[in-house]
Amino acid sequence: MQPVKHLFFDLDHTLWDFNSNSKSTFQHIFNHHDVGVDMKDFISIYEPINAKYWQLFRHNKISKEDLRYARLKETFDVLKYKANDDLISVLSEDYIENLANYNQLFPNTIEVLSELKPFYQLHIITNGFKEVQAKKMISSKIDHFFETLTTSDDAGCKKPNPEIFAYALNLAQAEKEESLMIGDNIEADVEGARKFGIEAVLFGKDDTFGGDQITCLSELKTILK
Q1: How far apart are CA 140 and CA 101, in angstroms?
Q2: pLDDT, tens digit, 9 for 90 and up, residues 108-120
Q3: Could you give the domains of the chain?
Q4: What is the pLDDT of residues 169-212, one digit of tens each?
Q5: Burial group, residue 65, by CB count within 10 angstroms (0-12, 13-18, 19+)
Q6: What is the pTM for the complete model shown?
Q7: Which residues on neighbouring strands pair with residue 200, listed in sequence order?
Q8: Which residues have a Cβ under 8 Å from the Cβ of 99 and sit 6 or more positions away?
Q9: Which of 1, 3, 12, 4 is nearest to 181 (CA)?
């Protein structure tokens, strides 16, 4: 492997604290629309349901619109909260509209990106929706660290499809051998990158995973040495 010159990061759940920001967004829109559910109960049901629908979305089994609607519909059904289709549609739209207004990052994100920026070209590869991802980066004040942003909408496919990695490398004018992917999802980020020929680091803890993994972004510096 050549010396690493390009670092490709996932955004949600890797740099941008999706769960924290998502919870704040739901609290805001539920208050606005007088949705009377306990937030702790809602989040405990919603998060695994959301993960399930995102996996279906990654594999092109549902559309973006289906994902946005079904994850809320199923959560309300489990909670036995009566929400008609109009309310679910409005909440779905308001959630996307407001999500980027919250900007909690994982610990040490700004510090680590600041240290890496002089020595590496930094990039984002994300399956998140194009209309939201750039806003998230601007709101959390990390957009200036990155040379390129590749979304699944831009590439026309989603991680782990090799075509999104090919698109990102072409946009960054980078070679596989001088690139490294960092992300939280083993299937989409790590295995997807490796199958394409890019080395990858898992952001998270998984005892079944045999490769490099970090639980704090500051640990990335030890892997890059």
Answers
A1: 9
A2: 999 999 999 999 9
A3: 6-16+104-224 (3.40.50.1000), 18-99 (1.10.150.240)
A4: 999 999 999 999 999 999 999 999 999 999 999 999 999 888 99
A5: exposed
A6: 0.93
A7: 181
A8: 21, 22, 25, 132, 136
A9: 4
